[in-house]
Design goal:
Blueprint lengths: L5 H5 L1 H21 L1 E2 L2 E2 L3 H17 L4 E2 L11 E3 L2 E9 L10 E3 L4 H10 L5 E7 L3 E8 L1 H16 E2 L10 E3 L1 H8 L5 E7 L10 H8 L2
Parallel strand pairs: 5-7
Antiparallel strand pairs: 1-2, 3-4, 4-5, 6-10, 7-8, 8-11, 9-10
Helix pairs in contact: 2-3, 5-6
């Protein structure tokens, strides 16, 4: 069955809205997740909620399942019952697509076990953020992932954390991700990531709620 995600890319009004609004919404996510000018790790969860909200806006709340069990580590949401993984990465300079996590791990042994058992199992929505430059909003279908995984093998598709470092996760290799977004089945929307001036107060909403009788 073809994923319903492909409908996003055929909806001209929605494509224009994504081009126009995504930078602003992700900038809000950064502001909401910042402290003393540093963006915290929680920004990833806020971005994920923004993309889930886009799916709800497009397909309706009844068709989106957000309460996904923790036993499905790569699945962030289900659309019409089908699992979807949402991945976002901020690229700087000519860095490209490095650092995109397949799974977060706490130790080297878990990372190795993951690599030995992993096989692509869900569609991916991948967002490459590139402030003051061009990035994209990509749909990477499961079939394209399986095809490339079979071609490259585990070693070529999966990058383990370096021994002796703080293992923040198992990544898809830069080569694999670059190949996936060039795949004929992949769909993309080019995003011009520009910041706008936003007056933001992270406490105002909570102060307002405290002020209610």
């Amino acid at each position: 069955m073809s994923s319903r995600l492909i409908e996003i890319f055929g909806d001209e009004k929605l494509v224009e809205k994504i081009k126009r609004r995504l930078s602003y919404l992700f900038q809000l996510a950064e502001l909401e997740s910042s402290r003393a000018g540093k963006t915290g790790m929680e920004v990833g969860s806020v971005r994920e909620r923004i993309i889930v909200a886009l799916l709800i806006y497009k397909f309706g709340e009844a068709n989106i399942e957000t309460e996904v069990p923790i036993t499905e580590p790569e699945v962030d949401v289900k659309l019409f019952g089908e699992p979807v993984s949402i991945k976002t990465i901020t690229s700087k300079g000519k860095q490209g697509f490095s650092g995109v996590k397949l799974v977060w791990t706490v130790d080297a042994q878990s990372a190795k076990e993951f690599r030995e058992s992993y096989y692509p199992h869900c569609d991916i929505l991948f967002i490459q953020i590139k402030w003051n430059g061009f990035g994209g909003f990509y749909y990477i279908p499961l079939e394209a992932q399986k095809r490339l995984f079979d071609k490259l093998g585990r070693q070529g598709y999966i990058k383990l954390p370096k021994p002796g470092t703080n293992p923040r996760g198992v990544e898809i290799t830069k080569e694999a991700l670059s190949s996936l977004i060039r795949d004929n089945e992949c769909k993309s929307i080019e995003i011009n990531w520009q910041r706008t001036k936003i007056e933001f107060n992270s406490y105002k909403r909570w102060v307002d709620l405290w002020s209610e009788e």
